[in-house]
From TrEMBL, chains A, B:
This is RNA methyltransferase. One of its GO terms (cellular component) is cytoplasm. Belongs to the class IV-like SAM-binding methyltransferase superfamily. RNA methyltransferase TrmH family. SUPFAM superfamilies: alpha/beta knot, L30e-like. CDD domains: SpoU-like_RNA-MTase. It comes from Phocaeicola coprocola.
Length: 257, 257
């Protein structure tokens, strides 16, 4: 039985203000909850009888059995699933040397929660563990972002920070900083290292002027055939995917073709 | 002044049934309307006075000047723009030899209108002019798809067809048919031609069994580092982007790195 207060609490997590106050976030659906429950502390698990019976060994501070109808009143999804869970927001420390030792992403005001979630899923696929976000970037704990990560949020760590300051200290250590620009150099003719920072910009405006000044390698995903009339740009998640795939190809497979 | 009937007509184009009956589709916003108006026959253009004044030479069967408030009653967008337009659906013939002469995409029941639009934008970027769609694929004229193409729909042609029959006739001509599978061969160690068909599958189920049997080259986008725990798959638009980028890199830039 799900009380009105619990329903109100769960639904309140749609708003960043409430998520921040409660240090909590919401995840819905069998696959996502299963992926996250071993990585984050679960405050509240709400599920149907059938689901709970088939998942007998779950760790959660509170477990509430509900009917489908009750669950759909708490759900933020168009098509409510058989389970939802409220998790505690983790707190990650990070070693400033991580950008020297591995490949990281930095997001300069990526606005769309779905794009952010897709980027996290891409980072996970390509073994990128840390994403540094400007304070204007969409909130990782937005339910739309969490759903779009498809569970990748269990493995990828986001750090909201003063991005110009972060990049300044990285550039002082000679960390390579890559950014995509429509007047950048063809990515396929540039050397790409196994460490450093790849910056992706805002959906409408790209990388901001202040951040652009800190980029040491301006790159471009060339269209094909070059010089033809085409779309003016690629979606930010799509561009992230192509860039990350090419960095990893160079490290692992560049000898092939 | 926008009549109630016109508002009803415009809004009715949210549904495929109505779009099909009317052979029409809706596009909203300054950039999109500007991109499409020279490529498709415009039945109806609805815009504010300011917009019309700054676009004096437009060809449309009917032009209606409206206030912002009137326009927002006809709009399907959360944030209505200053212009919307109803275009006639084009009818494309295609030469069956196109798959021998160029690189094409085939979509096997891609469901999400936003994914479809993003895939069209990717195709445009990589010079892929023809996309062959199973009849279960989302409708290209869904307003969400049209908006997500960001204008690329002016250059990329979609053909809804019996996909198994289409692929069967392609395979009889020895056209290479590529499909992505989690147990496919690493794309970076395969030869990739400048022509042929790349099949992308449904968001949840991938490529269907019937279609999979016609694939001549099963490929995989390898994750990094290989063998690590990671997301189980990539979003279909993201996978399309990485595959198309790699095909084009081979043709244009493989000598670089």
């Amino acid at each position: 039985m799900l009380s009105k207060n619990k329903i109100k609490y769960i639904r309140s997590l749609e708003l960043k203000k409430n998520r921040k106050e409660e240090h909590a976030f919401l995840a819905e659906g069998n696959k996502l909850v299963n992926d996250l429950i071993n990585h984050f502390s679960c405050q509240l698990l709400v599920a149907t009888k059938e689901w709970l019976q088939s998942h007998p060994h779950l760790q959660a501070a509170e477990i509430i059995e509900v009917t489908h109808e009750e669950l759909s009143r708490a759900s933020l999804l168009k098509t409510p699933q058989e389970v939802l869970a409220v998790f505690e927001q983790p707190h990650y420390e990070f070693d400033a040397n991580v950008t020297d030792q591995s490949l990281c992403l930095a997001l300069d005001d990526v606005q769309d929660p779905g794009n952010l979630g897709t980027i996290i899923r891409i980072a996970d696929w390509f073994g990128i563990e840390h994403i540094f976000c400007s304070s204007g970037t969409a909130d990782v704990y937005n339910p739309k972002t969490i759903q779009a990560t498809m569970g990748a949020i269990a493995r990828v760590k986001l750090h909201y920070c003063n991005l110009p300051d972060f990049l300044k200290s990285a550039s002082q250590k000679n960390t390579p900083i890559f950014g995509t620009f429509l007047d950048g150099e063809n990515i396929y003719t540039q050397e790409l290292p196994a460490n450093g920072i790849i910056i992706m910009g805002n959906e409408g405006n790209g990388i901001s002027k202040q951040i652009a000044e800190m980029v040491t390698h301006r790159i471009l995903i060339p269209n094909y055939p070059q010089g033809c009339e085409t779309s003016e740009s690629l979606n930010v998640a799509v561009a992230t995917a192509i860039v990350c795939a090419e960095f990893r190809r160079r490290t692992a497979w560049s000898s092939s073709f």
